[in-house]
Amino acid sequence: MYVELKNINKNYGNFQASTDVNLGIEKGSLVALLGPSGSGKTTILRMIAGLETPDSGDILIDGVRVNDVAPSERGIGFMFQNYALFRYMTVYDNIAFGLKLRKEDPKKIKERVEELLELTSLKDFGKRYPNQLSGGQRQRVAFARALAPNPSLLLLDEPFAAIDAKVRQELRSWLREIIYKVGITSIFVTHDQDEAVEVADQIIVTNKGRVEQTGTPREIYKDPHTPFVSQFIGQSTIVEEYYKMKGFQKGPYKGAIIRPEFIEAFKSDNKVFEDVIGCSEEGTITDILFRGNSLLLKLDVNGVTLTTHRSLERRSVKIGEKMRVIIYRLYAFDDEKAYLLENEELLKYDVKNRHLEAYLYSSDGYFVV
Amino acid sequence: MAKNRKGSEKKVDITKIVLIALSVLFVFLMLVMPLISVIVNSLREGFKFYFQSLGTSYVLSALGVTVIATVIAVIVNTFFGLVASWAITKFSFKGKQVLATLIDIPFSISPVVAGLSYVMTFGRLGWARPLINAINNTFGTDIQIVFAIPGVVLATIFVTFPFVSRELIPVLNVEGTDEEEAAALMGAKGFTIFRKITFPHIKWALVYGVILCTARALGEFGAVNALSKTRGETFTLPLEIDALYLAGSADSIVSSFAVSSLLVIIAIVVLIIRNIFEHNAKKE
């Protein structure tokens, strides 16, 4: 493990920002600290940087306990949420600042800064001041500045928060690519699960000062361990009376989480689902929201409201229409854990010979998968 | 529609003209005219008399005291203004709001009271008197505060204390602490951070505060009056003007106008410098 936190606790007055935090990050990985605001993710990042001191526990970087090592000696690059660029310095001077402090050879500094300007495609902007740059360009300057002294660990606090939605998408893949190109171990904080899933190869989910789960985006998504993770990841509807749905029986659970993609809603004359129509039950469309690339349907099934997506390629539906509804699976949870429950009725069918995708992306009679 | 718009425009125009006229008239009658009359009166007996009045030993001594008091007050207040505004904006601590309010005391208190408070502190019956006596006895010095130049300096410092910090606090508040934190993370130490990050940001506010502080220090009367009783030794220019004026002879009154004109000229110069700096700050 390159970065390790062991039994970290941190209080701000009465507020417990970190409770018994344990985590390990491997060298070369790109990790997201994901959680809602106030979940303690930024505190973890700032403690690794040395901007905050834990009340108890150990922080190790590359096997060395760094609790008492000054932030500037930890070999980290830090990118602040709003970048904290030095506004009275040019882009060039911003990037050179850390190098000049280390009294490096002016020629080497010049080479390094130019190399970074090249890397971040800011070659023509060296003489500009931060307020003459766009949000995306500022992010790139901040990135170059953090990388300048060749840190072995890069920490990014909400790297995309200060950028408008449209540019954000581009910058996500840019940042991911460039981090891989540089090959630096990186940790970034975000509250946006799409961002975490898209950029990181490892996600650490935090909640109320604790680490809930660590895993690849796929693991976090497919196998949530705690009620919080199952709710926080994906779009979720919490259903208490999950046992009212066909294929599920009452168990020792408090409720269940059903994601839109767990639900199939089709018209009763749909050929694709002819053989499994017995697993379905009736639902009524109560609302239809247009989501650009799909529709969001709200369905009333046995008095429970469920949400699902519907491709625009499928036959049109209208509010009040009766649909057949199959729930493939759901996450049941108690106070501690989340459990994956499959639809028991559906398991009786031989689904192995079918394209499983046929369920998810059935064309409602237009195409045959 | 078009007619309406024209009508409302006309209305705005009238409001505009009235407001401008009122302000110009008021400023001219209340501020500019009296100052012009000072200059005019100071030259009533001709240039020769004007320069003679400025060259008396009393006036020269007062000019010296004023310059000393102003220079020291500006240096001290710039330093403590920086320290206090830094403390208030960059750290959170108990009583921060109280400290910010206390700094403003000189704005709300009468300068005479400020002067008298120093008399009460350092005077013959003051509580700090034994301390000063002890210092004088130990070091063989003869430090006098009340009715001496140190008292004049202290009074000037008191009255001009808030000017620098009042200019700096809003600027530092807006700036936040991110850039400093970023610099510290890269290994910059306290003074480097101040020099490279904070100072460029507060430069113009600091200059502005220093200028205001200087102007106020030059003209302070009330507080200094309570602590300075010897003409030709501890008098500042405003006190000298007062003394000349109260002497009552026709000549001395003209002389007092001449000395006053000196302060008016200094004030105008300060305003011009201020405007130049303001212009530069805007350009940046």
Structural account:
The complex is a heterodimer of chains A (369) and B (284). Chain A has 369 residues and is of the alpha+beta class. Chain A has two domains: 3-227, Rossmann fold (3-Layer(aba) Sandwich), CATH 3.40.50; 237-360, Nucleic acid-binding proteins (OB fold (Dihydrolipoamide Acetyltransferase, E2P)), CATH 2.40.50.140. Helices cover 25% and strands 31% of the residues of chain A. Chain A is built from ten helices and 19 strands. Chain A has helices at residues 41-49, 91-101, 106-119, 135-147, 165-182, 193-199, 217-222, 227-232, 344-347, 357-360, and strands at residues 3-12, 15-25, 30-34, 56-61, 64-65, 76-79, 153-157, 185-190, 202-207, 210-215, 237-239, 255-258, 263-266, 281-290, 294-301, 304-311, 322-327, 329-333, 338-342. In chain A, strands 6-7-8-3-9-10 form a six-stranded mixed sheet, with helices on both faces. In chain A, strand 7, helix 5 and strand 8 form a beta-alpha-beta unit. Chain A starts with a strand and ends in a 9-residue tail after the last helix. Chain B has helices spanning 2-42, 46-54, 57-90, 96-103, 105-108, 111-122, 129-139, 149-160, 162-175, 178-185, 190-219, 222-227, 237-247, 250-283. The radius of gyration of chain B is 24 Å and the shape is globular. Chain B has 284 residues and is mainly α. The longest helix of chain B has 41 residues, at 2-42. Chain B folds into two domains: 1-42; 46-283, MetI-like (MetI-like fold, Orthogonal Bundle), CATH 1.10.3720. Chain B has 14 helices and no strands. The two termini of chain B are 44 Å apart. At the A-B interface, helix 2 of A face helix 10 and helix 11 of B.
Please, how many domains of chain A? 2
The CATH top-level class label of the largest domain in chain B: Mainly Alpha
Percent range for β-strand residues of chain B: under 5%
Query: What's the pLDDT, averaged over the residues of chain A?
Result: 88
Q: How does the major sheet of chain A shape up? A: 6 strands, mixed
Number of domains of chain B: 2
Radius of gyration of chain A: 25 Å
